[in-house]
Amino acid sequence: MAADDLHLASAARLRASGQRYTSNRRAVVDVLAGADRPLTIPELLARRSLAQSSVYRNLAVLEDSGVVHRVTSTDEFARFELAEDLTEHHHHHLICSTCGAVADFTVSDGLEDALARTMANVAATGFRPEHHRLDLVGRCAACA
Ligand SMILES: [Zn+2]
Ligand SMILES: [Zn+2]
Ligand SMILES: [Zn+2]
């Protein structure tokens, strides 16, 4: 998604939640858009000098509005990335069970097709699948 479209879509989601797209919120979206993996708050602050307290608050608002998605890992740090339905970049995560590092990765079309068929089959049970998550957990290159 082009940066302008991303900011327009982010502003629309915030507006729908009764929130404003302030310059600080826009800065957070900018940093996350430029990252190739979910970022912790310290990592986010290392890339853009913003007040730490405002980043906490703004991430909570962005998450509530569906702009940002919180990724849970194996350590105590929350990580944040742009919502997948906003970026239109469907992907999965590699999670390090030693240091908690999270990397984005994509799987083959064949596996995505198999997951889509599985979701369609599950609908027969009465459960209505909307999307899927698939994390691979192991040790990152630095920890292996
Ligand atoms: Zn690691
Ligand atoms: Zn991701
Ligand atoms: Zn998938």
Q: Count the strands?
A: 6
Give the biggest sheet: 3 strands, antiparallel
Number of helices: 6
Radius of gyration: 17 Å
- What name is given to the CATH topology of the largest domain? Arc Repressor Mutant, subunit A
- Give the overall silhouette: globular
What's the pLDDT, averaged over the residues? 94
Which CATH architecture of the largest domain would you pick? Answer: Orthogonal Bundle
CATH homologous superfamily (4th level) name of the largest domain: Winged helix-like DNA-binding domain superfamily/Winged helix DNA-binding domain
Low-confidence stretches: none
Which percent band covers the strand fraction? Answer: 15-25%
Secondary-structure element string: HHEHHEEHEEHE
> Alpha-carbon distance between the termini?
35 Å
